[in-house]
Design goal:
By secondary structure, the chain is α+β, with helices and mostly antiparallel strands. About 55% of the residues lie in helices and about 15% in strands. The protein contains 8 helices and 9 strands. Strand 2 and strand 3 form a beta hairpin.
Length: about 350
């Protein structure tokens, strides 16, 4: 009895293990069946269902969708803005200069069905890579055509924005010429525009020469302007100095005239004192130490203020007034006593000699 129970329990465990394995296999198979039937589309994507390579059922929007397993497959397309770096290309400008232009493009898939039909390829390229390859060729062609209408300076700095807008519009037009491509080009920009390596040195040398010539021209103009300013300043200085000297001469002349008038007015009040003062000034100039002057006292009136009268002995000099000097011009009209005194004073020195 015990052995039969044990055998029965063992059989039940073996049967339960088989059922569990079959259940797990069934779950896995059901998951595979459901996953091959249902699929989800993300918010950033759009999808197409292909049956034997042909799209069926239109565009699938974000959400849960179904398909026939093993017959149909799903292709997902990114609905976001995408960026593609165009291969660098050598382009000739209007002024016959070649440039190596490196550009990039921003684009978006607006119709996955048309995009798939336009860019599906029999080669090993994926749909996105095929679209990029064709888009790059169109953009390079439009860049060559548009940049060939402008000079290098315009491309580098002045009209680059308007040129890029034109390239963007013509690219979209070119994509829509034959059939709708299902994509739109939003922007084309030049990342870099360089000269070819073999031309860079020659162009840089020419640019350096042009800048040196321009600098020399600026220096010469500066020197010329400096000389003009210095000449103008010197002329103004000379004019101001001449004007100042003229004014000083006028003022000095007016001052001398006023001084002469004051002197004349002052000395006119006492002419005799004026003559005495002038004689003293002349004595101070003429009589210097070590000088010898020969003067005839009889014929020269120069020493007329040097009187010959001497104070009496015992007279205090501060209380003695010498007699007035003899006036030769008026000696004829003077009394006999004064004339005799003058002759005696004149003869005194001769007798002494």
């Amino acid at each position: 009895m015990t052995a039969a129970v044990k055998m029965s329990v063992a059989k039940n465990k073996t049967r339960s293990r088989k059922y569990l394995i079959l259940f797990i296999i069934g779950i896995i198979f059901l998951y595979m069946i459901l996953s091959s039937i249902f699929f989800t589309v993300d918010q950033t994507q759009r999808a197409l269902v292909l049956q034997f390579g042909q799209p069926v059922g239109g565009i699938r929007e974000p959400g849960l969708h179904s398909k026939i397993p093993f017959i149909q497959k799903v292709v997902f397309f990114d609905n976001r803005l995408m960026e593609y770096d165009v291969a660098a290309a050598e382009i000739y400008t209007k002024d016959k200069k070649n440039m190596v232009v490196d550009a990039y493009v921003r684009w978006r898939i607006v119709n996955p069905l048309l995009f798939y039909q336009r860019f599906k390829s029999e080669n090993s390229y994926s749909i996105i890579e095929e679209a990029k390859r064709r888009l790059g060729g169109i953009i390079v062609g439009e860049l060559r055509r548009e940049l060939g209408l402008h000079e290098m300076q315009e491309i580098i700095s002045q009209n680059r924005g308007s040129i890029m807008v034109t390239v963007t519009d013509t690219t979209n037009t070119k994509l829509a010429e034959d059939t709708q491509a299902g994509l739109v080009v939003l922007d084309v920009r030049i990342k870099r525009a360089d000269l070819p390596p073999e031309n860079q040195k020659a162009v840089y040398d020419r640019m350096r020469t042009e800048r040196e010539q321009q600098a020399t021209l600026y220096r010469s103009e500066g020197r010329r302007n400096g000389q003009e300013i210095m000449s103008q300043a010197d002329r103004e200085v000379r004019e101001k100095i001449a004007e100042a000297e003229m004014r000083s001469q006028v003022i000095r002349g007016e001052a001398d005239s006023e001084a002469a008038r004051i002197y004349a007015q002052a000395y006119g009040a006492d002419p005799e004192f004026y003559a005495f003062k002038r004689s003293l000034d002349s004595y101070q100039t003429a009589f210097k130490a070590g000088s010898v002057i020969l003067i005839d006292p009889q014929a020269n009136d120069y020493l007329r203020y040097f009187g010959t009268a001497k104070p009496p002995e015992g007279t205090v000099l501060g209380n003695w007034d010498p007699p007035a000097p003899t006036d030769p011009a008026g000696s004829q009209g003077e009394p006999g006593g004064d004339k005799a005194a003058a002759q005696e004073g004149a003869a005194g020195p001769e007798g002494g000699d």
